[in-house]
UniProtKB/TrEMBL annotation, chain A:
Keywords: Membrane, Transmembrane, Transmembrane helix. The keyword Membrane applies. This is CU044_5270 family protein. The chain crosses the membrane at residues 53-73. It comes from Intrasporangium calvum.
From TrEMBL, chain B:
Residues 165-211 are annotated as: Disordered. NCBIfam families: sigma70-ECF. It comes from Intrasporangium calvum. This is Sigma-70 family RNA polymerase sigma factor. Residues 18-74 form the RNA polymerase sigma-70 region domain. Residues 173-192 have a biased composition (Low complexity).
């Protein structure tokens, strides 16, 4: 009913009805006489930005530059043609085995999780990096890979405190002037319990079906498939470490998926050894491998990564490229 | 910086094709947000001016890219407003009279949805309307919003949930109110406290490495 009502509320149901064809044609003719920008990115320093915009002097271009295209506009690309990305983990792109063998291994890990004495807890500690959202002081950081060290603490009264500080650069030009100092606070946010930006419930289901329902409340797993399940489990670990039963349920959900590949032993970016699993998907429009590394003793998620495998689209990286990672401490 | 006057013939040909193929939907998009005929023509021209200047950035196929530009140009006008729920309903009912064959939703239901829509955040409302009014599929929604398809899917899913809750709330509010006046209907939904709108509070999430 709601969808139908929304459609009925559309104030312009016939797009062609209100058009002034003469005006449209005149506008096209005029636009085609306007100068177009051309690109000279290599010699353009960052500080030229303001001067350039002053020259252009068109409010709409400013709006687009600020809101949509800031990291992508050519004069902001500075020196490197490609953004720095973390090195691939050894074995991350292995062909792997999909189907039953991965399911068997995941089910074995689920049993290990259930037997584990490692308890769950609200809150999380992790290091994270993402190609498309790394910004410092309003500037995209492209020359080095600078992870964020995030701590999320949940107090006894349910209040949240989330602190994110820049970590040490792990790849690229670690001496670049644009990168933030290690330890510099990126954000420090506190929320009372009632306003905590919670995605998942505190009490997680201990069975696969119940957990799936909880995960799907904010992640359209049914529409987007197993890669979205991986994203949901990664988001969950950013909020809390699930208890043994919920960890087992998560692993069984992956086992049920059928398109999870087993990568065998993988070492994460903190040097911890785990079992690797991967899902290949192009749900973002670019073929991407979603990788999970699971602790063999506790079934806990150690790390999650996304790797572009075939092409980069408009992202200025050389494939294969890690475009996102998180390691849970 | 180099400035090229007009671009070469192939650029002009490509742009003209983009313009002709997309003028009507972009014009309609702008009209739906601004609800001002004269301004709509001007803003639509501005959208395509930006597109012309950024021709090298336009993906092929263009998908939802142009809607992203249009959205920002509309926002830059500072004229886009939350549509008045009752205006929307009246227009919908008037259109229904003009086309009696159209599938109809009960007036009270229309009012509830219109009121609920006005209580959502700008981003939720935009997402829902890009799909319902502009008819964008998920992949194009993602392009318009400059996010991944997965992120667009999640945002859409959550926006729908919030709309559903707001519709339920609007129903409860309406049932609890003795006034059906235009002003009271609008005020009751917009004047809701932050706690009441808890589901609409901005939620910080770090999907797939967002940080």
């Amino acid at each position: 009913m709601i969808e139908q009502a929304l459609k009925e509320l559309n104030p312009v149901k016939e797009p062609l009805a209100g058009l002034d064809a003469e005006r449209a044609a005149a506008d096209l003719e005029r636009i085609l006489t306007l100068p177009r920008e051309t690109v000279a990115p290599a010699r353009r320093p960052h500080h030229a930005h303001g001067r350039r915009l002053a020259v252009i002097g068109i409010a709409s271009v400013i709006a687009v530059a600020l809101v949509v295209g800031l990291p992508l506009l050519p004069w902001r690309t500075a020196a490197p043609a490609f953004a720095a990305t973390p090195p691939l983990l050894t074995g991350e792109l292995a062909t792997g085995v999909a189907g039953a063998p991965a399911a068997a291994e995941l089910n074995r890990l689920a049993v290990a999780a259930e037997r584990s004495s490692a308890r769950g807890r609200l809150g999380s500690r992790f290091a994270t990096w993402d190609l498309t959202t790394r910004v410092h002081g309003g500037e995209p950081v492209r020359s080095a890979v600078v992870p964020l060290e995030v701590s999320l603490d949940v107090a006894a009264d349910g209040a949240w405190r989330r602190v994110a500080a820049y970590g040490r650069p792990v790849a690229g030009d670690v001496n670049a002037a644009e990168i933030p100092r290690p330890g510099e606070i990126e954000s420090d946010e506190t929320y009372p319990r009632s306003q905590a930006p919670r995605i998942f419930p505190e009490r997680l289901a201990g069975d696969p079906a119940g957990l799936r329902e909880q995960l799907a409340a904010a992640h359209p797993i049914d529409d987007l498939g197993t890669a979205e399940l991986v994203v949901a489990l990664t988001d969950l670990a950013r909020e809390q470490t699930p208890g043994p039963r919920s960890r087992a349920a998560a692993l069984r959900l992956l086992a049920e998926a059928g398109d999870v590949r087993q990568l065998g032993p993988l070492t994460d970016r903190l040097g911890r050894s785990g079992r690797g699993f991967a899902v290949d998907s192009d749900l973002t429009g670019l073929p991407t491998r979603y990788v999970l590394i699971v602790d063999p003793q506790t079934g806990r998620l150690l790390a999650s990564e996304q790797v572009l495998t075939e092409r980069a689209g408009r992202l200025a990286v050389e494939v294969p490229a890690v475009i996102s990672y998180v390691v849970f401490r | 910086m180099g400035m090229a006057t007009g671009g070469d013939a192939s650029d002009q040909q490509r742009f003209a094709l983009i313009y002709q193929s997309n003028y009507a939907p972009i014009h309609a998009y702008v009209a739906r947000r601004l609800r001002d005929r004269g301004l709509t023509d001007d803003v639509t021209a501005e959208v395509f001016t930006v597109a012309w200047r950024r021709l090298d950035d336009i993906p092929s196929p263009i998908g939802g890219w142009l809607f992203g530009v249009a959205r920002n140009v509309v926002m830059a006008t500072n004229r886009a407003t939350v549509p008045d729920p009752l205006d929307l309903v009246e227009e919908a009912l008037a259109a229904r009279e003009a086309d009696p064959s159209a599938r109809a939703v009960d007036r009270s239901e229309l009012e509830r949805v219109a009121e609920a829509l006005a209580t959502l955040s700008d981003s939720d409302r935009e997402l829902l309307l890009l799909m319902a009014w502009e008819g964008l599929p998920l992949a194009q929604l993602a392009e318009a919003l400059e996010c991944s398809v997965a992120a667009a899917g999640v945002r859409l899913h959550r926006a729908r949930q919030r709309l559903r809750r707001a519709v339920d709330h609007a129903g409860a509010t309406r049932r609890g109110s003795t006034s059906t006046s235009r002003s009271s209907g609008t005020t009751s939904s917009r004047g809701r406290s932050a706690a009441d709108r808890g589901a609409s509070l901005p939620v910080r999430r770090e999907r797939g490495g967002r940080s």
